[in-house]
Amino acid sequence: MKSKIILTLSFLVILLGFAAFKMDDDPFTSLLKKLDDYTNKYPQEKIHLHLDKPYYAIGDDIWFKAYILNTKTSTPSNISKVLYVELINEKDSIKKLVKLPIISGITWGDFKLTDSLGEGNYRIRAYTNYMRNFGTEFFFDKTIKIGNSWANKVFTQTKYNFVKENSIDKVTATIHFEDKNGVAFKESDVSFDVQLDFRSVLKGRTKTNSSGDAIINFSNNKSFTDKSGKIIATLTLDNKEKVVKSIPITSTSNDIDVQFFPEGGTLIEDLPQKIAIKAINATGHGENVKGTIVDEAGTPITTFQTDYLGMGNLVFNVQANKTYSAKINFGDGSQKDIKLPLTQKTGYAITLNNLDTSKVVLKIMASQSLVNGEELKVVAQQGGNVYYVSKAKMDKQVLIANILKKNLPAGIVQFTLFSSTNQPIAERLIFVKNNSDLINVALNTTGVSDLRKGKSTFAFEASNQNKPVLGSFSVAVTNASKVVPDEDNESNILTSLLLTSDLVGYIEKPNHYFLNDDVKTQKELDNLMLTQGWRRFLWKNIINNVGPNITFKPENSISISGTIKKGNKPVPNGKVMLMATKGTFFIIDTVTNADGTFVFDNLSFPDSTKFVVQARTKTERKFVDINIDIVPGQIVTKNKNGADIEINVNNTLMKYIKESDNYFNEMSRLGLLERTIKLEEVTITEKRNPAKNSSNLNGAGNADFVMTSKDLSTCITLSQCLQGRLPGVIFKGNVPYLMRSQNQAMNIILDGMQVEAEFLDNISPMDVESIELLKSIGNTAIYGMNGGGGVLIITTKRGGSDLSYNRYAPGVITLNPKGYSVSREFYSPKHETPDSRIDLRSTIYWNPQVVATENGKATFEFYNADEPGQYRMVIEGIDAFGHLARKVYTYEVK
Predict the structure, then answer these.
(1) Is the pLDDT of residue 669 over 90?
(2) Distance in angstroms (rounded) separating the CA atoms of residues 526 and 541
(3) In the CATH scheme, what architecture does the domain 705-797 have?
(4) Which helix (H) or strand (E) holds 293?
(5) Theoretical Cys-Cys bridge with 2: which of 157, 225, 409, 498, CB 3.0 to 4.6 Å?
(6) Nearest Cα to 645, choosing from 146, 35, 254?
(7) What does the pLDDT read at residue 828?
(8) Distance between CA atoms of 819 and 471, rounded to whole angstroms?
(9) Domain spans of the chain?
(10) Half-sphere exposure of 448 (CA within 13 A, CB side)
(11) In the beta sheet, which residues pair with residue 884?
(12) pLDDT category, 225, cuts 50, 70, 90?
């Protein structure tokens, strides 16, 4: 770990115009102390999931290990002890959720991909409850492809063509329909529904032509904020069966957005500055462009071009009283003029050269009028830890300092330039590659077998700076001839914890920057730092003492808490008993405090455990109300990695899913296949409670009327969605009333919390999963006086809670909380004696917990499968100090 600057000590910096900075009791020292206090008070967490494979097929298992770090200490987090991992489908619906205990910053689990899922683009999202306070941008969120061949009769391949007519984007979608063997469905009826921005823009019918193609034309009339969506296409087979396919729309045009980013944040006249360029096409991918900078008279000044993924830079000196624009030339021959960012007459600029392997060169430039001896400061920090700080008197126009990289931590380091009044005036991110923060994994491969079904034994020694480390590692071995890795686009422990978890937005091909350590790659990585967003915290919040709103406390265990009331008054010293009735068995009790609240914490129980809570007053009277505390579930936000969505999932994965078919067929022949796979399937239907996540006290879905998200796709405000569609309900403005009780507004319950009736239009319709109307006395009675005017139960995606409960008698309720998921053990067959079984696994070995002991040594072994090919092993891990490990090894099985 790098030495952090201790605020009570003095230290020196390298100088060429910079002065030694002594930590004394000045305002700037107080500011740095505020930074330290702020990040100690509000530490954050970040997560990496090591997955066994980059993509899957229905019937597979997703095996994963989670590594959770404290961003302040860069060590395994001890803030949270509970992790949530979700599998989310293309409809932004959570299909699977596991809740896992975290021990010393690690945990592991799995998802079984059953036939109820279907093919498509899925997301794996992981977070702690505490992370929700800082926004979903910093969750682990990865898009994965899941193919389906076994339970699939119809395969599609879609191509989009874009034209622009009178500024309106016209789209032609050509959808090809064929079976598993490549035989086209000719002259077949197709009905379709084109949806953009969660709204239907076109519905209709057509037929496939003699090639099996259905052609659909639609427009984006610019009223949609999101140029993405889907086509729901229904193909009618010869036997009248209908097959429904959901085809992603990733864009509605071939537009390319080009942006210019001055280094440090602002262009200053008469100062030579680096300007970064980023060009992104409509699907979110980088697109290389060329161009020329011209002045207001059209005189060419300089040329530029992007080098990798639409990113590049140029050095440019903006002259006073001139304006500039860029003439962009695109790959298709089209052109566009874009104005450069506005300039300031005077100011300061910061520039960093990060290409030297041993040092970072820092340069501060000032306008001539600001060469007045004012004192500026520079701070380099990561995670709230200051690694470099200096002050400089601007007695010349350019000041330079050299910072040794060995004193900086691996990962993103933020440099900030402060004015003489301690206000941030320029900022720059760099990425530091520092191997001293990594674990070296020395792999012993003498025990590796190159035979099919051969036993391979591996050993390794883990060390950091030649000292053995005690660490926790995960190992995944796949047949890379079947599961072909996309190395540039891999997410791994280094890309997650050092790069993407500290940046906002989509990072294309993150592992590209870690595959090579040459100057070209370093330049490409630096362009990423110049153009990507940063938002772990803002200096202005530090300066103004504005902290985040901590709504969600760190979870140290599963807990059940609530309040006991009688006649709407708290019951102090009440007796509360918690009894597990299904899944496990225990009985514990407690008493309420002066506010009538109680808590059962340090609970650990498996998922699907059911409980009974019984409450009495101090004098054993049972007519009390038990109100359980409900933490709303995390809603599903827009996929920040939408650019990773694959339009033709099955076609892209065809080779892999056919290989998976062979494996499933063999497992079925041996009677070893879990009966979650259907041999044939036309459509996938899901029988479920339309309001399954509801906080309805009568039980989810027990209502007089239920609406779901599909009923809310054609309106802007929620009151518009509901007017005239809720039986027996009228609206006065945006406030709902029962027709029989127009003097009392309806009670609105949002994710288990009561809100004012006027709050209705603050809820976005696209965020709503279900709405339940309670108006009959049988359904409203449980809400007492609050239910007299009727109740609307609104549940967001995925709002509500993992804790549902029902009242059956006074002083007694039943609970069905979300418990810990039981992690399964990976099945690795032992081929110790010859047998006739064919082993066709694609994941050869998975072990989430390989421990290197005090001497840094660890061993593991497994048997190869029955197929030859390149076998690829990925080892990832961490030690107690937060040093990270990643090792990739391939070997040939003949």
Answers:
(1) no
(2) 27
(3) Beta Complex (2.170)
(4) strand 290-295
(5) 409
(6) 146
(7) 80
(8) 28
(9) 155-236, 260-432, 558-628, 705-797
(10) 19
(11) 438, 878
(12) low
